[in-house]
Amino acid sequence: MLPAFFCIAAILVINITHWLYKWWNPDCNGVLPPGSMGWPLLGETLHFFAPNTSSDIPPFVKERMQRYGPLFKTSLVGRPVIVSTDADLNYFIFQQEGQLFESWYPSTFVEIFGRQNVGSLHGFMYKYLKNMVLNLFGPESLKKMLPDVEQASNMYLKRWSSQTIAEIKESTSKMIFDLTAKKLISYDVEKSSDNLRGNFEAFIKGLISFPLNIPGTAYHKCLQGRKKAMKMLKCLLQERRERPRKIQSDFFDYVLEELQRQDTILTESIALDLMFVLLFASHETTSLALTLAMKFLSDHPLVLKELTEEHEAIIKKRENPDSRLTWNEYKSMKFTFQFINETVRLANIVPGIFRKALKDIKFKGHTIPAGWAVMVCPPAVHLNPAKYSNPLDFNPWRWEALDTNGASRNFMAFGGGMRFCVGTDFTKVQMAVFLHCLVTKYKWQAIRGGDIVRTPGLQFPNGFHISLSGKNAQK
Ligand code: HEM
Ligand SMILES: *[C@@H]1O[C@H](CO)[C@@H](O)[C@H](O)[C@H]1NC(C)=O
Ligand SMILES: *[C@@H]1O[C@H](CO)[C@@H](O)[C@H](O)[C@H]1NC(C)=O
Questions:
Q1: What's the confidence (pLDDT) of residue 200?
Q2: Minimal CA–CA distance to 45: which of 470, 475, 376, 456?
Q3: Residue stretches of the chain with pLDDT short of 50
Q4: How many whole angstroms from 26 Cα to the centroid of ligand 2?
Q5: Mutate to test the pocket of ligand 3, among 338, 411, 414 (most ligand atoms within 8 A of CB)
């Protein structure tokens, strides 16, 4: 009896020791980058997600860059990960999409976004979907949208100015959602009784939560939110199918036409997943950027002054000052685009872009083993003092002097390579047009909130409350 017990105990101890040894010393046909794998299973996950109020490179990454250099290994959400803060390697990773690297996100994300979303599709299907979306958000399409964006901005600004205090984070998020939903599915938030956005809110609140799917948890609400939103999208698509419209103008029309073709590879469920991702990807990111933009303007009067001058000049040049914003006027907003670049550089809305290595990859003496996850870290590039002097300063004028040829290596707020964000131009139109309406007609005062927390994604835990009034009004 006793010898058997010792025998089993010994085997267990040996197994566990072996497993632990493997955890801390993973297999590799070469030299792994330095770094720590943290606790078994947990890795360094908790430290990675620890909230911090700094706008600098996330402390988790910064500490390790100082200790290990630009490339280090760690373990996050149960996976071995190589973190890259090296601009050249990041560029290489983006260029090698589909060859040496492919898009990879933690499995909870796949669960949440649907199995067939743009983020996780590869190869042919992916290119096909991407072209479809690029069409939808390309220059021709955006030109047609310009009046809608202007109208929505004016409407929301007017509404805020009628309130004593307006909370900007929620309101911009609502505005962007309205615009995107209108563009994609002609969904009119003002006229609809169902609450599509409410379901997205529940979804987003639980997105960065512990993945425990039992009633009451944020994660459970998140999955429920997605389920309800998907059901609504499905109903809306069905309605359209029953009552087709004469002039094709939105994504639903396009999808229905495509589904009728014999040789199509599009299915209804792929189209609905895509719809969901687009509605999600647009409204959270752009509203964060706009809220931060308003905070920067509140804190930097000289920037506000120059921005206002640019937009007032646009109106002065017009024959009729009340005419609508034109595409040429939009294109002429030089300082505004510098301002937007500087805002998204410091916003670092996407703190990590994930890929999976498909083969062993050698880089500057280290090896990234096949199958490992790689996290490209945009903040480390955007806040590199060698590329951006005094990187934490908000200084839109720095973009005048920056050589934009090499810029793509040092600016990756919208990703890079084949997976470059399809919403980049859409975002810029929305931001620029909103800013135009804001600075030409209104003045405002920050009242409270506006504090930033990063987990490591950007958040405004107390919102940003302002008091907005017409330029000539007394309030
Ligand atoms: C400030 C606003 C935004 C930021 C900072 C941003 C950032 C990014 C980044 C970094 C990526 C690359 C992800 C990767 O390589 O894995 C990306 C991809 C993507 N973005 Fe955005 N985005 C913004 C707005 C938008 C908007 C408005 C839309 C929708 C209209 C959108 C839709 C997408 C989609 C569909 C992808 C996946 C593209 C692909 O995998 O090929 N984004 N975005
Ligand atoms: C943020 O990170 C810094 C540097 O690691 C640390 O000193 C600080 O305690 C952290 N916490 C908060 C809440 O900012
Ligand atoms: C903003 O950044 C992009 C990407 O690097 C660059 O192509 C563009 O010229 C920049 N815009 C301005 C106004 O500097």
A1: 76
A2: 456
A3: 475
A4: 30
A5: 411
